[in-house]
Specification:
This is Extracellular solute-binding protein. By secondary structure, the protein is α/β, with parallel strands linked by helices. It has helices at 7-14, 25-34, 61-77, 93-103, 114-122, 128-138, 148-152, 175-180, 189-198, 218-229, 246-262, 275-280, 292-299, 305-310, 339-349, 352-359, 375-380, 382-386, 388-401, 415-420, 423-432, 438-460; strands spanning 50-56, 81-87, 109-112, 154-155, 158-159, 162-168, 170-174, 286-289, 311-315, 325-332, 403-404. The chain folds into two domains: 7-11 and 23-166 and 327-380, Periplasmic binding protein-like II (D-Maltodextrin-Binding Protein, domain 2); 170-324 and 405-460, Periplasmic binding protein-like II (D-Maltodextrin-Binding Protein, domain 2, 3-Layer(aba) Sandwich).
């Protein structure tokens, strides 16, 4: 499966309890300087005053509690400033920011995904100078996982997003059903289809339950991952589209066929978040999701212990190559922000102890894309230690080798709007449940994508 050692994982095996991943002396010094008021640990305001409007996508109470710890530290060190935090879900941002731009109510600091932030940058709504100087204050390039910014947060030389954490999507499966079918853990596209057929027993349970709801972008993610597994792309950073390519056609045919033969029709209304329930109630034998899905099972009271013990995962199946898809949950600074306050709040959020506590607030939800984490403390968390050699190692390898959806050739201004338009979800549903032929469905999808690409190209020009 082309699994290479992840720098974070390799460093964990070689470092001491107190060492921070990848932080040389210069980077450590830079982080220490960034932590102080200019020093950060100074209890004076350091010239930082006014409210800091902070948008974040963290709805869970445990994550919000860790954010509040950071807010309290920030406000204690800067008595003239206050944090106004607002929960803005990932899917709400594409509609939310244009209205905020018009109304002059953009936040000072925000967290979302690069696919949603890049269109803001194209529209001139991101202060890349402020973000670039924040990168330097944090310690520069050594503060981030090697290559991560260039792959997932830089467009034409400008940094528009820096990672708060990362994850990677996996093929999660029921090991008990796999064993009962006499099959090995799937590695290839053909393996996954064979496993889906063998673990399909409708209406009790289905081989592979896909999130194809048009209220979500799960189908778009699936199409991109399987297209990447075939060695192809949906659209490149210049706007060239590949809906008519053999690689995209094979992915569309594959997903439509498996969804119709080995999945429930309820996949048409299943969103990414619903895969938790589908997997944990026993109705799904396989789902594509992150390691967080297994983490939820281990922390949910009342689930059958044998079911929980049977949940496991592996890499997204390979065709000519693995289809790793990285999730980067990233920070940015919009234009006209209170930059001084945004910088100081961001630096508190990235302090090693604050950042580590956030990553471990829901173990296996968050994986580091920065180098400020005590590796022994991270891997020593009991649930992470339990899955260290399986879904944790696979997640870290995927983060190292993969990219954000559509960013395989670097940040791509077209992929976010195409995914958000639900073109892929409509196409897969047309093939799987609507009786439409693959070529007709692809032609329909290409026409819808053409309009989006033309609009984005006019904005860029």
């Amino acid at each position: 499966m082309n699994q290479q050692p992840n720098p974070f994982h390799a460093m964990h095996r070689a470092t001491s309890r107190r060492s921070f991943l990848g932080l040389g002396l210069a980077a450590t010094a830079g982080l220490a300087t960034a932590s102080c008021s200019s020093d950060g640990n100074d209890t004076t305001d350091g010239g930082v005053t006014g409210d800091v409007v902070f948008w974040h996508p963290y709805g869970q109470e445990t994550r919000q509690a860790e954010l509040q710890v950071a807010f309290d530290i920030f406000e204690e060190e800067h008595p003239g400033a206050r944090v106004q935090a607002e929960y803005v879900p990932f899917g709400d941002l594409p509609l939310r920011w244009p209205a905020a731009q018009q109304g002059g109510t953009l936040p000072d600091l925000m967290i979302n995904i690069p696919e949603n932030i890049l269109p803001m940058h194209i529209a001139g709504v991101i202060d890349t100078d402020a973000l670039g100087s924040l990168v330097e204050e944090l310690g520069g390039e050594p503060f981030f996982a090697p290559g991560f910014l260039d792959k997932n947060g830089r467009y034409q030389g400008d940094t528009f997003a820096i990672p708060h954490y990362a994850h990677n999507r996996l093929m999660l499966y029921r090991s008990d059903r796999l064993a009962a079918a006499g099959l090995e853990v799937p590695e290839t596209l053909a393996d996954v289809e064979e496993c889906a057929a063998a673990m399909n027993n409708p209406p009790d349970f289905f081989g592979w339950t896909m999130p194809l709801s048009q209220n979500d972008i799960g189908g778009g993610y699936l199409l991109w991952m399987i297209t990447r597994s075939n060695g192809g792309s949906l659209v490149d950073p210049e706007g060239n589209q590949f809906w008519a390519s053999d690689e995209v056609r094979a992915a569309a045919d594959y997903l439509g066929r498996i969804a119709s033969q080995y999945g429930p029709t309820s996949a048409a209304t299943t969103a990414i978040g619903d895969t938790f329930n589908r997997f944990h109630d026993g109705t799904a034998s396989m789902v594509v999701d992150t390691a967080a899905n297994i983490a939820v099972a281990n922390s949910t009271e009342g689930l059958d212990p044998e079911l929980v013990a049977s949940l496991n995962g592996t890499h997204i199946p390979a065709g000519t190559q693995p289809g790793h898809m990285v999730g980067s949950v990233a920070m940015t600074i919009p234009v006209d922000a209170n930059v001084a306050a945004a910088h100081e709040l961001a630096k508190v959020l990235y302090r090693p102890e604050v950042h580590l506590d956030f990553l471990l607030s829901i173990p296996m939800f968050h994986f580091p894309a920065t180098t400020n984490i005590d590796t022994d403390a991270f891997f020593g968390e009991p649930l992470i230690a339990q899955y260290k050699d399986t879904v944790v190692a696979q997640t870290l390898a995927g983060i190292d080798e993969g990219s954000v959806a559509g960013f395989e050739d670097g940040p791509n201004p077209f992929i976010g709007p195409i995914l958000d338009a639900k073109i892929s979800e409509v196409m897969i549903q047309d093939i799987a449940f609507g009786g439409m032929g693959v070529d007709a469905a692809l032609e329909k999808a290409a026409a819808a994508a053409d309009e989006i690409v033309a609009r984005i190209q006019s904005q860029i020009s």
